[in-house]
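Minutes, structural biology subgroup

Action item carried over from last meeting: produce the structure token record for methylated-DNA--[protein]-cysteine S-methyltransferase (Brevibacillus composti). EB confirmed the sequence was re-checked against the source entry. Recorded below for completeness.
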Amino acid sequence: MRNHANSPIYWTVLTHEEWTIHLAATENGLCYVGSPNRPFAEMEAWAAARFAGCTWVRDDEKLRPYAAELLQYLQGERKSFTLPLDHRGTPFQAAVWAALCRIPYGQTTSYSAIAKEIQKPAASRAVGAAIGANPLLILVPCHRVIGKDGKLTGYRGGLAVKTKLLQMERNP
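Output recorded by EB:
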């Protein structure tokens, strides 16, 4: 990874209904969407491993376009996102995250289906780990991945959030 020392990470807080969500972006795009109602420290800890020595700059205006698209989604007015993302991970993680972005709005898939799609059919557990490392909740829709048996499985934002997102997508 490149050295990101002193590279600014811009952040803001989006509030929607009972949720507050931290958002962060680099000059290249949105890099982090926090779990609803989690503290700034969650985002800070995530960035410490990926952007060591970064400078935090609260900039509500710079993040306004990202917050606007996410708010439109949460209000049922948007089904896809158009702004640039800056998600950094391994090539395997990037392949999984790209596959997540191809899951249509309102539909779900399984870990094993994602593994097959990225041509690693025996890698369901590794797919689960890559999904768990997804820094862009909602925009990279890991909430659309469920167990092969149809049961809800883990979600960084919590199963109540996953349930709400899936219900919102199924009942626009």
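Discussion: Strands lie at 8-16, 19-26, 29-33, 55-58, 109-110, 145-146.
Next step: EB to file the record with the rest of the batch.
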